[in-house]
């Protein structure tokens, strides 16, 4: 299991790449040095502090919980045009949190009725 610092470092790289940001652009956006961003991404800062984590998460468009607790992976899926705008706008953190919560609930419900691989449901 990854430490919280490893999750933050990983997620910061993933989200920075997703947004097409360089380390300097991210640093400028959250008002820290590029060296600080590089050190966080390298796992060299033991505790970046809540205020800094909160600013990073907000700037990168995710909730603090998602930024600090869950390693993120980029995926590509087709979505309706209106949904794409919502997922990249100011509502993105709330929508992503709701999606994660819904997926967790679905897995729990599937497990409670004995479905071994809930992602295969459509194939049954």
How many individual helices? 7
CATH homologous superfamily identity of the largest domain: lambda repressor-like DNA-binding domains
Kindly provide the name of the CATH class of the largest domain.
Mainly Alpha
The major pleated sheet works out as: none
Q: Based on the structure given, which CATH architecture of the largest domain is correct?
A: Orthogonal Bundle
Number of domains: 2
Secondary-structure element order, as H and E? HHHHHHH
Described by its quaternary structure, the protein is single chain
- Class by alpha and beta content: mainly alpha
Query: What coarse outline follows from CA principal-axis ratios?
Result: globular
State mean pLDDT (0 to 100 scale).
85
Polypeptide structure, described:
It is a single chain. With 124 residues, this protein is mainly α. It folds into 2 domains: 66 residues, 434 Repressor (Amino-terminal Domain) (Orthogonal Bundle); 43 residues, no CATH class. 63% of the residues lie in helices and 0% in strands. It contains 7 helices and no strands. Helix 1 packs parallel to helix 4. The C terminus is likely disordered.
Give a nutshell description of this structure.
The chain is mainly α and 124 residues long.
Set down the secondary structure blueprint.
Layout: H1 4-19, H2 23-30, H3 34-41, H4 50-60, H5 64-69, H6 81-88, H7 92-112
Characteristics:
124 residues; mainly alpha; 434 Repressor (Amino-terminal Domain); 2 domains
């Amino acid at each position: 299991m990854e430490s919280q610092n490893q999750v933050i470092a990983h997620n910061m790289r993933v989200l920075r790449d997703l947004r097409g940001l360089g380390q300097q652009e991210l640093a400028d956006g959250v008002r820290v040095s590029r060296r600080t961003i590089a050190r966080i991404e390298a796992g060299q800062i033991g505790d970046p502090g809540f205020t800094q984590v909160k600013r990073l998460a907000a700037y990168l468009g995710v909730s603090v919980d998602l930024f600090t607790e869950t390693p993120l992976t980029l995926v590509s899926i087709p979505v309706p045009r209106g949904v794409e705008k919502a997922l990249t706008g100011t509502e993105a953190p709330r929508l992503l949190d709701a999606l994660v919560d819904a997926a967790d609930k679905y897995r729990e419900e599937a497990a409670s009725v004995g479905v071994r691989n809930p992602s295969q449901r459509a194939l049954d």
